[in-house]
User: Fold this.
Amino acid sequence: MNPKWNGQFSCFDLVARTGDRIGQPVHTVVSLGDVGIGADDFVVMAGPCAVESERQLLSTAEAVAEAGARILRGGAYKPRSSPYSFQGLGVEGLKILRKAREQTGLAIITEVMSEEDVEVIAEYADIMQVGTRSMENYALLEVLGSCGRPVLLKRGMTSTLEEFLCAAQILAMAGNPQIILCERGIRTFETATRNTLDIAAVPVLKTVSHLPVIVDPSHAAGVRSIVPALARAAVAVGADGLLIEVHPCPEKALSDGNQSLNFTEFRDLMDDLQPYLAIPQEKREFRPRLVVGGAD
Ligand code: PEP
Ligand code: MN
Assistant:
């Protein structure tokens, strides 16, 4: 850890690990029914990049639940780099997500891009996802402060960890302490993968913050063949969970098909994780204390 970081986060008092939090648990656990994100369980959130149809979502929900996912993902409002790409089904997509929750019991996570949509999305979603392009949308973070739902905050693709924690602090100051941090890869000079998974971000964030940290290997890799290896790395480095894109037929997906797993691939990924998940969380997890001093 860069010794220059010592003390740097004391101003982020709502999200930083600044000694023992008097009268509060040492780590934040985001609870949804019997699922605790940041507790001993490793929580997998999975589903399509975008909700495309009832059939597509319901079949995916059943497949991921059967393979061990606890939370269903699916975008109804999509931030697309191209204006010509599929933009999402909006409220119709939210209704399909609700139906999937009723049928499978899975909690729902979906993205919110604009402060104007917070109220309607909070009616349907169990977790509000803030995407990489919105991490610095402070008007959105402000409104999410009082939305009454936990927020999964993705790291901006060009953000430092300090800027990431700053966005989390803004959200907490706006009144919402239920925050899950998500490392989803950052922009670097590398082109072999869509983004570069900053795996070191997991132990660093766990050292300086009490919030749960999860990894999105799908958007980091950009290609499905690399997703299982990155998922394994996330478990080994002490992440609290994963966010993974799964589609019944990735070749036909309206968004992010290249990085989406089909049902068999997702089941295999979950099976492959089991030996790593058998290592108790307190052994996998690194929440080292910041140490003062030492050379760069
Ligand atoms: C997504 O989860 O589908 C998404 C758009 O992610 P990101 O904001 O990380 O690009
Ligand atoms: Mn996506």
